[in-house]
Amino acid sequence: MTSFQTRIAGTGHFLPERRLTNHDLEKMVDTNDQWIRERTGIYARRMAEDGIYTSDLAHEAAKIALETAGISARELDMILVATASPDQPMPNTACVLQAKLGAGNCAALDISAACSGFVYGFGIADQFIRTGAMKNILLVGAEILHRFVNYKDRETCILFGDAAGAAVLTRANPGEDSKVYSSHLHANGEIGDLFVLPAGGTKIPISQKVVDEGLQYVRMRGREIFKHAVRTMSDACQEALDKNGMKAGDVAWIIPHQANLRIIEAVAKHFEISMEHVIVELEDTGNTSAATIIVAMDRAIRDGRIKRGQNIMLTAFGAGITSGSLFLRY
Ligand code: ACO
């Protein structure tokens, strides 16, 4: 069977202008700038204005990615939106985005894998392109997480922000060097209770009681997540290297999920790669879940750190607990 190679044709990202800084949070909960910086590396998070939805952020990022790729929305075969904060349960945010882009009748699907969503989506898109079933796929990671955060809970409200990033993935032309080496997707549902958004589904439908108890907000066991994050991302990176007969020195850049600077540093240490080869972009964004990797990647492409021909390792973990890696030559 003929096998094709997947190429990133263009990327883009969008960050809302409104910022919530550590100093703003000092006035809201019992915390301080020094504690937050030392424990997370975060100074500010972005917050979408009222009346702006996840699909709006996705739309802005997608327009930039399509323009950079030189591909029109009408040429897309599929739109994938990785998100844990969709516009609404139904219809999916990818369909809303399809209409905003005027993308015709291509397939449109949301990926629900929390912070691992972009890596999961990339792995799925690669399979469709690899087999020749599809040629052009728009993959977006987009979140408005601040609407699911309790600004009285100092353990979570310091972490999360809003953003969108997009990549247009396409079939590489013969002779083009870009490819996805492999993707490795995992989950461990046995420890799913480490990070949850309890209400809003069939288990706990929204009611006044739910709202009074704050069950519409995320809940997290931070210290335990930290340990699993380091282990799962390190393992997923190693799995990708082993699969392709490579070593850490063959990787030009690792782009981990941008949850916390200390987690990123621990993964780099575990993976035996210098921080000079790690993309870190969370100080002015916070943890934007499914958007972090593609926002960080687009920033590094635009400022010239990431260059064509380099080997790039994407790795993520998130609620589920989901995790994975995607190893590519850009
Ligand atoms: N400001 C000041 N003090 C705080 C704050 C705060 N915002 N939050 C907690 N503390 C206190 C705690 O109450 C605790 O006090 P105590 O010792 O009196 O009990 C103390 O600080 C230490 O708390 P720890 O939980 O041990 O702090 P830790 O060093 O683990 O840092 C943190 C907490 C930043 C949450 C860390 O565990 C972490 O980043 N974990 C991973 C979280 C994460 O990535 N979540 C998202 C993953 S899934 C996804 O991305 C969707």
Description:
The protein has 330 residues and is α/β, with parallel strands linked by helices. The chain has two domains: 6-171, Thiolase/Chalcone synthase (Peroxisomal Thiolase, Chain A, domain 1); 179-329, 3-Layer(aba) Sandwich (Peroxisomal Thiolase, Chain A, domain 1), CATH 3.40.47. Helices cover 32% and strands 23% of the residues. The protein has a five-stranded mixed sheet, sandwiched between helices. It has a four-stranded mixed sheet with strand order 8-13-12-11, sandwiched between helices. A two-stranded antiparallel sheet has the order 2-3. Strand 12 (311-318) and strand 13 (322-329) form a beta hairpin. The radius of gyration is 19 Å and the shape is globular. The two termini are 24 Å apart. The site of acetyl coenzyme *A has 23 residues, from helix 2, helix 6 and helix 8.
Question: Can you identify the CATH superfamily of the largest domain?
Answer: Thiolase/Chalcone synthase
Q: Helix/strand-derived class? A: alpha/beta
In this structure, how is the largest beta sheet organized?
Answer: 5 strands, mixed
Shape: globular
What order do the SSEs take from the amino end to the carboxyl end, as H and E?
Answer: EEHHEHEHEHEHEEEHEHEHHEE
Distance between the termini: 24 Å
Give every kind of bound small molecule, once each: acetyl coenzyme *A
Widest beta sheet: strand line-up: 1-7-6-4-5
Any idea of the CATH class of the largest domain? Answer: Alpha Beta
Number of strands: 13
Named CATH topology of the largest domain: Peroxisomal Thiolase, Chain A, domain 1
